[in-house]
Amino acid sequence: MNNPKYTMIIQWSEEDNCYVVGFSDFPGQQWRTHGNSYTEAVSNGVEVLELLIEDYQIAGETLPVPKTYYDQVA
């Protein structure tokens, strides 16, 4: 993966008793993976992001434009 600039959100879920991971730049399912530790959630998130980008490319779909810090505070 060539340094994608997508936002990865990691949040504790009391309901699931684990960290859940989502990618707000991609439409669809809010949470895409999880981890029992923060480190595991990060690792799983990176793996899922790589697969998500690959799926878009295989399907010939245009990748979403990553939001930037300035997009979110403006």
From TrEMBL:
Q: Which InterPro entries match?
A: TA_system_antitoxin, TTHA1013/TTHA0281-like
What is this protein's record name? Answer: HicB-like antitoxin of toxin-antitoxin system domain-containing protein
What organism is this sequence from?
Crocosphaera chwakensis CCY0110
